[in-house]
Amino acid sequence: MALHDLLIAPFSEFAFMRRALIACIAISLSAGPIGSFLVLRRMSLMGDAMSHAVLPGVALGFLFFGLDLWSMALGGLVASLAVALLAGVVSRVTPLKEDTSLAGFYLISIASGVLIISLHGSNVDLMHILFGSLLGVDDRSLLLVAGAATLTLFAFAVIYRPLVVECFDPGFLRVAAGGRSGSAIGGPGAVAHLVFLVLVVVNLVAGMQALGTLMSVGLLLLPAAAARLWAGSVGGLMLTTSGIAMAASLLGLVLSYHVNAPSGPAIVLVAGFFYIASLAFGQRGGLVRRYLPRRHLAH
Amino acid sequence: MNVAHLKHVHPAPMHVAAEGPAAISVCNLTVAYNRHPAVHHLTGQFREGSLTALCGPNGGGKSSLLKAIVGLAPIASGHVDFAADRKRAIAYLPQVVEVDRGFPLKVLDVADLGHWRRAGAFGRLTAAHRKQSLAALAAVGLQGLEQRPIEALSVGQFQRLLFARLIVEDAPIILLDEPFNAIDQRTTEDLLRLVVGWSVEGRTVVAAIHDLDMARRAFPEALLIAREPIAWGAARDVLDDAHLARARALAEGWLENAPVCEVPA
After folding, report:
1. Which of A74, A128, B15, B152 is the one with CA 20 to 30 A from A182?
2. Which residue intervals define the domain ABC transporter in the entry (chain B) (predicted)?
C-alpha cells in the first residue's frame, strides 16, 4: 500500500503527472540513439554546450511572444544549431580548438539568455525555463515531445549505418564513398553527422517544458554514459540507455512530486545516481570489476 | 593558378615503368604542403596487375603519393588518371588508421564494411555478402573470432581484420601504406602472401614499405622516391646501392628556405 502511494498514486490522481511522465518517456525513447551516439562520438560536452545555447533563443522567443511554446522552441532550435555550427567553423578557421570555442559560445549564450529573461519576466519564469516544471507540460508540449521522438527514431533508421561508420572509421568512408572528389567535406558521413546534430537540438528543445533547457541534456546523456558500462554492442547500448532513461524519468518525477522540487533536476539526479552506480558496478570497466578482478582464465 | 611550389633539386631523369596497359597514370605530379613539395614532378605508370613496392626515406612522399592517388591529399600540379571506371574502385589502407578501436562493433561487422561500395548506406547485406565476409575472415586467419568485439583484438589481429575488409572490398586497385609496421613476423608473412595473391589475381597493388629485403624478394617492381622521384622499374634495379645512396643524400639535404621551383608544371 505504501508503495502504491509512493509510486502509483501521483500518476493515478493527477493528470499533469501523467502528462509529464509521457513527455519524459518520449524523450527517453530519443535518448537511446541520441545519447548513445553523443557518448560514442565523444560529443558529450558538445551536447552540454548545445543545451546551454538553447537558452538565448528561447529567451528571445519569450521576449517577443511571451510564454508561447512554438516561438520559444523555434528560437531555441535556431540558437543552438547556430552555436554548434559556429563552434565547428571557429575550430577550423582559427587556432582555437573546438572545446574552447564551445565553452566560449555557451558562456555567452547562457549569460545573454538569463539576462534577457530576468529583464523581461519574473524569476519564476526563469526557473521554469531553466529547470522545467511539472505543471508546464500541456497538450501542445506533449505533441512537440512525441513528434520529436518519432522524428528521431525514423531519422535514425535512415542515418544509422553511415553514422556508425563515421564514428568508427571516418577515413574509410571518405575513400569508399567519396570517389576522388578530393574534399573531406560532403559524403554520407558528413550528412549523417549534420542530421544527428539537428536531432540533438530538436530533442533538447522538446524536453524544455518537462525538464528545462539546462536539464534536458541530462536525460539524454547520463543514461547513455551509464549504459556504456553495461552494453557491448551499439544496439544494446541504445536499448539500455532508453531503459535507464525511463526508469530515471519515473523515479525522478515521483521525487519531484513528493519533495515539491523542479522536475528537471530531480530526474537528472536520479539519472546521475544510475550513472554513479554503473561506474561502480558496471560489467564493462566498472570500478568493482577493475579492482576486484575475477581470477584469470587458463588460456 | 597554382602558386609555384618551392624548388629543391632538379628532377631526376625519368625511369619508365615496364610495359603494359596502365591502371594508374601519374603525370608530372607535385603534392605540396605549405608550398614545400612532398612529391615532386613524378611521372610514370602503375600497370594493370603490377605489384609495386613504394620505397624511400621517412618524409620522402610515399604516403603523400598514395593519398594524392585516392584523393585525400591536395595536388599542387600535374594529374593522376585511371583506366576507365577505376577511379571509384580503389581500396586504400592508410598508415595511421583513425579507427576508434574501443567502438562496440564485432569483428564480422568490420569485415562487412567492405561491402560499402555495393550496399551503400541503405542496401541490404545478403547471404552472399555474408558468405564473402566470412570467407575473407577465414583467409586472414580470424575464423572463430567473428563474434568477438574488436576491442579484444591484438594489433596484429586488427591488421588482419583490416586486410579482411580489403578482401571484401574486392577492388581492382589496392593501395597499402606501410601495412607491416608493428606487426610480428608470422602475421607479416601471412599478410604478404595475401598481397602477392592479389597481384596474381590481376589486381594492381602498390604498397609503401620500409623493408628493402622484402621489397626485393616479394615485389617485382619498385618506385623509389625521396620527394624527388629516383627510380621506377624492376625492384632489383631500382633498389640498388647507387639509387639508395642518392635517396639518402636527398633526405639529408631537405631545407626550410628553398627557392621557387621553375620547372614547368
Report:
1. B15
2. 24-251
Nearest to B230 by CA among B15, B65, B63, B37: B15
* Structure-block grid coordinates of residue B55: 620505397
- Closest chain B CA to residue A192: B121
How far does CA B129 lie from the centroid of its chain?
Answer: 26
In terms of C-beta distances under 8 Å and separation of at least 24 residues, what long-range contacts does B31-36 make, across chains too? B31/B61, B31/B64, B31/B65, B31/B67, B31/B68, B31/B73, B31/B74, B31/B75, B31/B76, B32/B5, B32/B6, B32/B74, B32/B76, B33/B64, B35/B3, B35/B4, B35/B5, B35/B6, B35/B76, B36/B5, B36/B6, B36/B258
pLDDT score recorded for residue B7: 47
Q: Are the C-beta atoms of A129 and A212 separated by less than 8 Å?
A: yes
Amino acid A65: pLDDT: 86
From chain A, pick out residues whose CB is under 8 angstroms from the CB of B70. Answer: 175, 180
**Looking at the complex, does the CB of residue A171 fall below 8 Å from at least one CB of chain B?**
yes
Chain B closest-CA separation from residue A241 CA (Å): 14
ipTM of the complex: 0.80
The grid cell for A123 is: 524569476
Q: Where are the domains of chain A?
A: 2-291
Q: Classify strands B204-208 and B51-55 as parallel, antiparallel or unpaired.
A: parallel
A59 in Cβ contact with A113 (< 8 Å): yes
Give the nearest partner residue to B94 out of A171, A177, A233, using CB atoms: A171
Shortest Cα–Cα distance, A218 to chain B (Å):
23
The topology under which CATH files domain A2-291 is: ABC transporter involved in vitamin B12 uptake, BtuC (1.10.3470)
List, in order of start, the domains of chain B with CATH numbers: 1-88+206-265 (3.40.50.300)
pLDDT band at A102 (very low <50, low <70, confident <90, very high): confident
* d(CA B5, nearest CA chain A) in Å: 19
Alpha helices in chain A (DSSP H): 2-3, 9-13, 15-40, 44-65, 69-93, 98-120, 123-131, 139-168, 170-178, 187-206, 208-211, 216-227, 234-259, 263-281, 287-291
CA B220 to chain centre: 16
Name which of A175, A183, A297 to mutate to probe chain B: the one with the most chain B Cβ atoms within 10 A of its Cβ: A175
Q: Is the pLDDT of residue B113 over 80?
A: yes
Q: What is the identity of the amino acid at A256?
A: S
| Out of A170, A176, A237, closest to residue B117 by CB | A176
Contacts of A111 (CB under 8 A, 6+ apart): none
**Cα B35 to the center of its chain, rounded Å:** 23
Do the Cβ atoms of A214 and A170 come closer than 8 Å?
Answer: no
Among A3-7, A75-79, B16-20, name the one with the lowest average pLDDT: B16-20
- A181/B99 CB distance under 8 A: no
Contacts of A184 in chain B (CB under 8 A): 72
Cell numbers at B28, concatenated: 608530372
Phi/psi zone of residue B43: left (φ > 0), alpha (ψ -120 to 50 degrees), beta? beta
Q: Which amino acid, residue B77?
A: S
Judge whether A185 is closer than 8 Å to chain B, CB to CB.
Answer: no
pLDDT category at B19 given cuts 50, 70, 90 is: low
